[in-house]
Every structure is written in C-alpha cells, then in structure tokens.
Amino acid sequence: MLDTCIRYPYSKFTLRFFQACQVLKITRKKSYILLGVFVLLSVAYTFWSAKHHQALVYYVRNRFINQALYRAPELNAAELNNTHLLLYWTPFFQNVAFDGFGRRPFAKCPVSNCVATNDRRYLRRADAVLFHGADMSVLDLPAERSPRQLYAYYVHESPPQLDMLLGPLNSAFNITLTYRRDSDVHMPYFRLVACNESESLAVTQDRQSELTPPPGVVPPGGPLVAWVVSHCSTDGRREDYVAQLRRYIAVDEFGACSGRPCPRPGALQCYQHLARSHLFYLAFENSLCRDYVTEKFFNALHVGLVPVARGATRAEYEALAPPDSFLHVDDFAGPQELADHLRWLASNGTALARYHRWRSQYRFAPRERWCRLCELMSRHMEPGTAVLPDLHSWWYEGAQCHS
Ligand SMILES: *[C@@H]1O[C@H](CO)[C@@H](O)[C@H](O)[C@H]1NC(C)=O
Ligand SMILES: *[C@@H]1O[C@H](CO)[C@@H](O)[C@H](O)[C@H]1NC(C)=O
Ligand SMILES: *[C@@H]1O[C@H](CO)[C@@H](O)[C@H](O)[C@H]1NC(C)=O
Ligand SMILES: *[C@@H]1O[C@H](CO)[C@@H](O)[C@H](O)[C@H]1NC(C)=O
C-alpha cells in the first residue's frame, strides 16, 4: 500500500487524484508522472487559450453574428458606379457601422467617390479592407486578396493598451490609421483649426452662450483642480504624479478609483459640470507615448477648463492644440512647482485669461476621419508602393512609449 500514490495530499484536487490512483492501483511513481503531465497540459492550455479564445470569440462574432444580423444595406447601382469601395472587415468594438455605410463616411470629403460596407460578399470589389486591431482575429481573414487591394490597420489605443496579435498578418498591411501623426491616415481624437476673421466673431458668440459661467470664473474657495479617472494603476504612473501633487494642492477626484462617481453621467456632461466649479483639469494619459493625446484633453478644452497635459511632449500637444491653451507638466520642475503655478494663476485673472484667449481664434472642426483613406483608395497605387514589412515593430518600437 505504501507504494501506491502518496499519503499527503495538498488540496482537495490532489486528494481526489491520489484516491483515484489508489483505487486504480497506480504506483506512486506513475501517479507523479500523471500529475506532472496534467500540470504541464493545464499551463499550456492557459497560454493557448489566452491567445486564441479572444480570436475565437471575434471569429464567431464577426463571421456569423455580424454578417447575419448586422449587414449593411445592399449597395445600389449608383453607389457602385465609379466608386472606391471600403470594406469594414471587423466591427469597431460593438459598432459594426463605424461612421456609417454607403457614401456617408465620405460625404464631406474633398475626394468623395468612395462607399463603405461591411458586407463580405463585396470582398472582390473592395479597394481597401479595414481591420480594427482590437476586433481582429487571425482565425477570421479574407479568403482571397487581389494585389491592388489595400489592407488598412486601424487602432485608437496606444501599445500598452493593445496587445497586438498579428501573426501571419504582420506584413500584410499597406496603410495604418492611428493616433500617431506618422500614420498614413492620422486619426486624432479631435481637430482644432484656426478661424478666419468672420468665423472668429461667430465662434466667440457661440462659445460664450455655451459656456456658463464663462471660462476661468469659478466660485471662490473650492478646489481648483478636477480629475476623472477610472484606470487606477497605469503604465505611465500618473497616479504617482498625482499623489505627489496632492501634497501641495487639492485634487478633486471622481471616477472608479476614488469611488466618487461624477455628478453627471456621460463624459462630456461630466466635464461640463466640472467646468462650473473648477479651473484646471488633469488630462493625464494612461501611457506616455509619442502623439498619444486622447479625448480627456480635448473634452477639457471644449468645456472651458484649462487642461494640464501629461502624455505626449509639449511639441506634440502643440501640433494638435494652440500653445497657450494648456499647461504641460514638463513646463515645471515638479509637482510642487506646478501646484504653486496653478494657485498663482487662479489668483491672477490676467494671467489666466491668456489660456482662454485661443477660444476666439480656433474652433473644433469635424474630424472627417475617412477623407484621407478615400483619397488613398482613389490613387490606384501600384502593388509594392505601399508596404509595411513589419507592422509589429512599427507599432511597438515606433510608438516611443516610456514610463
Ligand atoms: C455612372 O457614372 C457616370 C459618370 O461618372 C455616368 O455618366 C453614368 O450614367 C453612370 N451610370 C449609372 C448606371 O449610373
Ligand atoms: C471664412 O470661413 C468661412 C467658413 O469656413 C468661409 O465661408 C469664408 O469664405 C472664409 N472667409 C475668408 C475671408 O477666408
Ligand atoms: C498677473 O499676471 C500678469 C500677466 O501675466 C502680470 O503682468 C502681473 O504682474 C501678475 N500680477 C501678479 C500680482 O502677480
Ligand atoms: C499591399 O501589401 C501587400 C502585402 O505586403 C503587397 O503585396 C501589395 O503590393 C501592397 N499593395 C500596394 C498598393 O503597395
């Protein structure tokens, strides 16, 4: 009996396992081997499933559910006449239609002879096939490809948030659509453009009616700095910076990390509410990557707050927004100096007004995100002129993220 199995089980599972061994009269040595094989198999399965379960889920969802239930309306003869066709191969998270089907995404473009669909029966006709990185599955790829067809890779997140599973597709893409300015199609979260004179007057009136109270005027005594945050531990360690900042100035925090929900639901409504009682907003990105500036920054600008930026470099922010519309953590030696400056600005209306002056000179413009893609599709590029031999390294090394 001593030679069968083991007498000191470590858990319910091993207890049952060794009991079974005893019943089956398996020797101790063999039972160890069996257990070892079992452990190895479960470790291998864990790794395999982490990689493939997601792919499998996307495969089933895209291939069967979306194509059966959420297929774009059939394109009519006029839509197919002399147009360039964009095929959404995947959805954009839960959204199968992106910015619409047919001519809609391109309606306001300078080059607008493009149509979009997610109907896979148009695969052969498609001039470009669009893959959203987070919805793509290596199990679910087009069955055929013509050499003149552009594969477009689309993502809004930065590398620390998106684990790219490209596999055999690593060198299959021709163009990228990301937040990075060196993408073939730059997809910023928002676009601000300088107004001409007749516009700036209209914009000023428009903005003034929209912003109540006017930007930069808050009830005295309250906290100056607002922050809404739901990812508590980040790659860019913004939580450490804020912890230090808090030693010198109060930060009014909302969101999942503080357990204080924003008094208004909905992102923009929340920001609008905060703008009534705060002057500054900590627009701290969760990762520090080149060009990575998200809606938190633009929402703050939009509602009348002065964003304090942390994420991309100041020069990269200036490529997206007027230089005097925000503060940047790099402008200060550290959190203490930033806190002192915020307090000083709050006490000096003239100095603070400088950060709102842009409001009469710039306006938020429609992003027209798909225009450049339509233009690229209509170029009839020769095969071999738009190749990305290693998308993986373009994405990871080119992102220039740091902590
Ligand atoms: C297709 O477009 C051309 C001009 O681009 C036009 O002359 C022709 O009538 C159109 N054909 C159909 C069937 O709409
Ligand atoms: C100013 O912008 C408006 C709207 O975009 C445009 O209609 C107008 O022609 C522009 N004026 C000048 C002087 O550029
Ligand atoms: C307030 O700001 C203005 C403009 O930056 C500056 O000229 C002035 O000296 C400041 N006043 C105080 C009291 O710091
Ligand atoms: C698109 O990428 C594929 C795969 O790398 C390549 O064979 C094809 O020539 C590219 N198309 C263009 C227009 O460069």
Automatic annotation (TrEMBL):
GO terms for molecular function: fucosyltransferase activity. Residues 82-189 form the Fucosyltransferase N-terminal domain. The chain crosses the membrane at residues 32-50. Pathway: Protein modification; protein glycosylation. Its EC number is 2.4.1.-. Keywords: Glycoprotein, Glycosyltransferase, Golgi apparatus, Membrane, Signal-anchor, Transferase, Transmembrane, Transmembrane helix. The gene is FucTC_10. It is a single-pass type II membrane protein. It is found in: Golgi apparatus, Golgi stack membrane. Its main location: Golgi. Belongs to the glycosyltransferase 10 family. It holds the Pfam family Glyco_tran_10_N. Residues 224-394 form the Fucosyltransferase C-terminal domain. This is Fucosyltransferase.
